[in-house]
Amino acid sequence: MRNFSKILLSAFFLSAAVLLAQEKDDVTLVLPGTEPLDWSEKDGEEMTSRLLSGADAFVDRKIQEALAKTPRLPLHAQDSAELAASSRSSLAFKLGVVDTRSKPRLEFVSDDSVSAQGIPGSTLVAKGEGFEIHQVRWQVLPEFLAEGLYVNPIGNSTTSSATPLMVLMPDADETPEDLIGLSDHLGEAQQMARHFAQAGFRILIPAPINRRIFTGLPPDQIQIKKSHQSHREWIYRQAFQMGRHPLGYDIQTMLAGVDWLITSFPGHAVTVAGYGEGGRAALYAAALDTRIAQAFVSGAFASRDRNWTEPIDRHIFRLIPEHGDSAVAALIADRTLFVEHTKFPEVRDRKGELTTPSFSEVQKEWRKIAVVTGEAKLPPTFHLSEAVDGVRGDRAAIAEFVKALAWESSPSISETSSPLADLRRNFDPEARHARIFLSIQRHIHRLIEESDHVRDEYFLFAAEPKLREIKGKEEKSIPPLDPTEFIANSKRWREDFEQNYLGVFDEALLPIHPRSRRLQENDHWTMWEVGLDVYPEFNAWGLLLIPKGIQPGEKRAAVVCQHGRTGVPHDLVDRENPAYNGFAAQLADLGYITWVPLNLRGKEDRYRILDRKAGLIGASHYSFFVASHRQHIAWLKSLPQVDAKRIALYGLSYGGRTAERIPAVIPDYCLSICSGDFNQWTRKVADPEFPKSPTILTPEWMAVRWNLGNTYDHSEMAALIFPRPFFVERGHYDGVSDDSWVAYEYAKVRRLYDTFGLSDRTGIEFFLGGHSIRGEGSFQFLEKHLGKP
After folding, report:
1. What angle do CA 225, 226, 229 make, to 5 degrees?
2. For the chain, what percentages of helix, strand and coil (3-state, to nearest 5) are there?
3. Is the pTM of this model over 0.85?
4. Mind listing the pLDDT tens digit for each residue in 354-408?
5. Residue 770: helix, strand or coil by DSSP?
6. 339, 286 in Cβ contact below 8 A?
7. For residues 384 and 341, is the Cβ–Cβ distance under 8 A?
8. Tens-digit pLDDT profile for residues 300-319
């Protein structure tokens, strides 16, 4: 069918070529009110490249503009405390560090996982020079139990208030055993935990979630291997939708350790430290928690302008300009920060790579700290060093760190150390990793299970408290509510949805500047291709079908028809296409004006990378859609044949996704029809057990949106469209979801319309078919609410 579509497409352009040859002086080759379209592309697929390239250039410029906006956290301003508190709150939200941690409690466990109170011999892992190592676990969140090693200093100074406390997080692909010298993974010079232990620190070393694919997990987790995702990406793709993050779980693990250390050893100074992923967690933990006196950050501090090139599990929404590393470090300005620049962990996968920045790049970001704090120079407690030969956490660096702390006395770090012997008989690091991994996943799944209620409280019940009052009632008859207040209040959440979840660019739209050329004509309509300006680098483009027989002064309803992923506008005119069935042409046959815009979801990974770039500054590929559709609406309203009050949106698949999100923020669309997409979106993208191929198992790693599971699922998007008409078209055998879950989510939409006495404005049609436009119930819905053309 795709070949047939290409043949038909060629025929369209051949027809256009004939028209141009025969009527080159005929003004009807250009739509009245527009200029000639002179773009050189020959078909929709090439136009996809043009638009994506423009969008990419635009977002690159916006990133550079964001980087130039250095945040201000002046140390000596009157409102400095309030500014810092606001920045910390915003950073905690972006990292997902929002859950109340469990009561501090450390449990010492033996090598066969039998719990023990105190420190019995069965928990002893090894003894070193001046310290001993125990196996421990501690509760972080109700479902999440961290595990790792506890390094206890031994000797006369262990009870002194000068004994420093530390939580030390390894890089994702290293273990506590690696850092303390119980494995041969790291050379002695890089055994950071061992050096800190020799310096007299009491240390908790958590075991992190690693980047490997499928290691030691039970058989029911085999889908992770099939999806070719790392453990961190697997957690990311579930957590991100729920406003949580793998890095956030690392930070919560460290802070839970800090809670226990402070509770157990009051009056002792606490340090957080780490390398690689652990170094980044340490930097953020110290920025968030002012109880932390010092931070040692190795192989992590850098500019975040290319965060979008890194592995997907490192993606943080709206990171810049507010929270680049210099601004995060500024939140530690009244305490001690030691940054060791060394070789970063080398990570490469199909979604990004982590590389080591040059020392000069790190210095540039480091110097920006003074700009953020409004000081002439950096705080005297801030230290930046460059590791020799890429070695990290070596004796010299740690000795320098200890010296910077100006402790009265601390043990010297030995130049050589005796090998450590692991006394455990049955220890399995893979089994430990699996336990930690599954406990984080359980926490996320509880969030998913509770998300319906959380979303109700976030939007519906806040916009209209009476909805909460009647939800649990069982009366035989409940009088409809007056929708006036809910409609007025919804404007606030409509703006919230666009600003904070789809994302908005700080840029004014250009004049639309329409350009056109005629492509095809038949007995029913004439088809034009039209280009519009959106932003300086970015255009919109599509096909306009104008029915024949429109009388002067007559106004017709217009239907914007949106294609899905990898599609092009011509697919919606092709009557042989089995998914779209030429529905844009069918509607034009009936007398509706149809506009078929190109979306940015072609070229697969190109639009995904575009989404990551935009996400760095708090936008998304939907930000381009919203901007484009605002231009579509403005242009359609300018056409003399179009009734400005009767412009509808109808889309399939990703086009159906557009039909849920765009009218939710653009009230100019008077009606919306979602085909082949409506379902329980939170479960679809974040729950691996969701029926019918959950998105988490697919390459659609950008399908998750930050915190959307707690705010707006598909029924809430429909509530933002309310009271305008909204319709769902669903094939029983459509693999995007399961009938029962579509019905579950739609029931909430129907309840809302019913509750306000507007049940005639919504509908759903299930039909015997698949992922396609049926065009029966939906066409009747259009006629009912738009009127006959």
Report:
1. 55
2. 45, 20, 40
3. yes
4. 999 999 999 999 999 999 999 999 999 999 999 988 888 888 888 888 888 877 5
5. coil
6. no
7. yes
8. 999 999 999 999 999 999 99
